[in-house]
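queue> pop job 88
queue> type: inverse folding (structure -> sequence)
queue> payload:
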């Protein structure tokens, strides 16, 4: 008696083989999209063979003998970029947390949620560089322009994280506050905020990490910081100085990411609870009285 006969005899069916049609169709569609994108780009296919050699040549120019004479200025501009990132993160968090909580389904009414979410979606669709270019016409070529662009550009994503975090909070504490007669503001203050605060603070630090990397890009459009210095020396073809600047940027970014990541992990882990241990002397006295 075969397995299939036994299965039919007891009313069972063997599992069907998975269809290969869907993966094949998806692979064909992806391939067509890739080919169409490649056809629309002016790719110099004849020069691709010499590309590794050119990359090695410029890497040698940048890192064989970096120009450390500009290091003090590079450190100052790096600190300016970090300041831009920090101010932008603070401004973004101050605006996005209250507005993001109003956009949550369990906090704000529908006539408030929908417009706010629409505004957040529009902000997410605009890159930081475009926002910086628009602000340049008003605030000029200053580091404040970069900080303001980082603050505005981060509101869309940060607020989305806020209302998704608030909506994921378990309803037990909220129902307890409502049962005690609490209104929406009291439920938000005493139930939703304490549960969501660690995650929101972690997201705020992550926004700072993102701003650190983005601030260097904004400097390329004239917003100040280490990016402006990189753009200037790249235009002058001073590759030894460019190599030194890249070393400073990489080290500073890695250090700030490590510090911010350690703080985020500490926040998410929560406070440590220390066990109460009686002193040995007191335990000995108690044992002696017995």
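queue> result:
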């Amino acid at each position: 008696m075969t397995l299939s006969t036994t299965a039919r005899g007891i009313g069972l069916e063997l599992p069907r083989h998975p269809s290969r049609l869907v993966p094949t169709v998806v692979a064909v569609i992806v391939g067509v999209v890739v080919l169409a994108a490649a056809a629309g780009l002016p790719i110099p296919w004849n020069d691709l063979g010499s590309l590794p050699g050119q990359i090695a040549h410029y890497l040698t120019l940048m890192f064989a003998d970096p120009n450390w004479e500009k290091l003090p200025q590079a450190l100052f501009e790096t600190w300016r970029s970090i300041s831009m990132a920090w101010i932008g993160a603070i401004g973004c968090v101050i605006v996005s947390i209250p507005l993001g909580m109003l956009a949550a389904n369990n906090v704000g009414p529908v006539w408030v949620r929908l417009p706010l979410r629409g505004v957040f979606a529009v902000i997410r669709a605009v890159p930081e560089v475009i926002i910086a270019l628009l602000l340049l016409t008003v605030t000029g070529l200053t580091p404040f322009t970069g900080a303001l662009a980082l603050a505005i550009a981060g509101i869309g994503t940060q607020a989305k994280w806020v209302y998704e975090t608030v909506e994921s909070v378990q309803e037990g504490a909220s129902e307890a506050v409502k049962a005690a007669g609490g209104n929406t503001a009291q439920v938000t203050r005493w139930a939703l905020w304490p549960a969501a605060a660690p995650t929101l603070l972690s997201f705020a630090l992550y926004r700072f990490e993102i701003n650190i990397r983005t601030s260097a890009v904004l400097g390329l459009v004239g917003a100040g910081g280490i990016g402006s210095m990189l753009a200037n020396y790249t235009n002058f073809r001073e590759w030894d100085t460019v190599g030194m600047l890249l070393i400073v940027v990489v080290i500073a970014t890695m250090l700030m990411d490590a510090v911010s990541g350690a703080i985020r992990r500490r926040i998410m882990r929560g406070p440590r609870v220390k066990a109460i241990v009686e002193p040995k002397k007191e335990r000995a006295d108690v044992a002696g009285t017995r």
